[in-house]
Amino acid sequence: MGQDDIAQSQHYLSSDDRDGFYRTLFNRRDVRSEFLSTPVPDEVLARVLYAAHHAPSVGFMQPWDFTVIKSHAVKQKVHVAFQKANAEAAEQFVDERQAKYKQLKLAGIVDAPINLCITCDRERSGKVVLGRTHMPEMDLYSTVCAVQNLWLAARAEGLGVGWVSIIETDDLKQALGISGQIVPIAYLCIGYVDHFRAQPELASKGWRQRMSLHELVHSEQWGQEMDAELAAGIAQQADFPDAYKE
Amino acid sequence: MGQDDIAQSQHYLSSDDRDGFYRTLFNRRDVRSEFLSTPVPDEVLARVLYAAHHAPSVGFMQPWDFTVIKSHAVKQKVHVAFQKANAEAAEQFVDERQAKYKQLKLAGIVDAPINLCITCDRERSGKVVLGRTHMPEMDLYSTVCAVQNLWLAARAEGLGVGWVSIIETDDLKQALGISGQIVPIAYLCIGYVDHFRAQPELASKGWRQRMSLHELVHSEQWGQEMDAELAAGIAQQADFPDAYKE
Question: For residue A196, what is the nearest residue in chain B, using CA coordinates?
Fold first, then answer.
């Protein structure tokens, strides 16, 4: 079976579909500063939740729950916990790095019309889960796949998403009434945005730059240089991501 | 700003792009049995690696590495480790459940032309990482986002992907020469496929069914019933995923 046969197979998506997928992926951003107060219609929110629910999961366990926060009072509780953690985090950096850290806006909790906590229920389908015996963390990872599905679907819908990780898990659990075996994986801020940045905010603000893919790909063994054919393929496709950027 | 203004904004992708994205997402499958031996061109592999590298990462840390395995000898080592773990895992189930487990084909390591190990370098950008002070696991989660980006991009390219989690991490590290602070996150089998299943294999084989989204969404507090508007939105969009399935 050659490439032409594959291209004609009903299971090969059209090049238009592929382009739409890549346009979504390469224009996704972590949003903190550009949220608008425009309400997010519940049917749009429903679509991105369906996208999250169609993530892969170990043993088809579907360990996720989605807690949607619209109430200002609940957001305010989470925002206070963020502020406490952010002040502690700033102390980890020194001198110019700390000054730069303090200038960054790192969360849009109160600005974003929707906040969403995605949690993992570690006992969703009993103690023994197909595929989790040797990697017990697989349910956590499945839940992260749901986060990423949602993040991309939001971009396809024109919604910005920011992931807030500067917060104590216990504070978050308390604010949202989460107990027991339930693990908060991601606290997300969601809303329409003024604009999506052309580059990741931490890059454009000089915090850290994108690495070259060449440094990150190896052949056969970890850390080993990649084979010449693959290196040529990567070099040949170097402009591929930018071709899809707005 | 109303919905019409948003729809006209340059940052709102076209409905064709959105459809291409959703068609990719809802037709993605965990593939174990349908791999073809057709070689995967290196430029196609390069594109899905670029997609993975454009995942979000905490503090723009980009903690991932990609070890591409084409060699039969390396695959064979990993396959032996899988077989050992799979025999142990089968013992966790009893009676009919065990019989059913043993009938499932759970990995395509040797069949798939490409194997890929995605790892996380926990010290990629020094000990202090923006956004990781309170959630040290964020670098692992960032790497999972790269896995999911790659999985979806592969589907857009007509490639099937399967995630092998039935393996001892130490065996995997040994087979691939991974040491120190490097954590293997995902071992993936990648290749063109005979077909993509209409439903997840574990569902069609009666292992476990997809849950209703209604059970999984809550409002304001974890476990609380969702508000009426959101419930109506979810009910209204119930056919949304199926509309994109092939």
Answer: B11
Let me know if residue B12 belongs to a domain: no
Question: Based on the structure, what is the number of domains in chain B?
Answer: 2
Using DSSP's 3-state secondary structure scheme, residue A27 falls into: coil
- The answer to whether residue A100 neighbours chain B at the CB level (below 8 Å) is no
Question: Are residues A178 and A147 part of one domain?
Answer: yes
- CA gap A114, B67 in Å, rounded: 38
Query: Helical H runs in chain B?
Result: 3-8, 15-26, 42-53, 72-90, 95-103, 138-156, 169-176, 201-204, 228-236, 240-243
Compute the nearest-CA separation of B44 from chain A (Å). 8
- Which chain A residues are closer than 8 Å to B55 by Cβ? 148
Q: Residue A114 sits in which domain range?
A: 16-210
Would residue B227 count as lying in a domain?
yes
Query: Are B121 and B149 within one domain?
Result: yes
- Whether ipTM tops 0.85, in short, is yes
The reply to whether the predicted model has a pTM over 0.80 is yes
| Residue A10 belongs to a domain | no
Tell me the residues of chain A between 26 and 45 that have a Cβ less than 8 Å away from chain B: 26-28, 30, 36, 38, 41-45
Angle at A55 between CA B26 and CA B20, to 5 degrees: 30
Could you please report the per-residue DSSP string of B155-220?
HHTTEEEEEE--S-HHHHHHHHT--TTEEEEEEEEEEEBS---SS-HHHHTTS--PPPGGGTEEES
Instruction: Report how far residue B20's alpha carbon sits from residue B30's, in angstroms, rounded to the nearest whole number.
Output: 19
Instruction: Assign B6 a pLDDT band (cuts: 50, 70, 90).
Output: very low
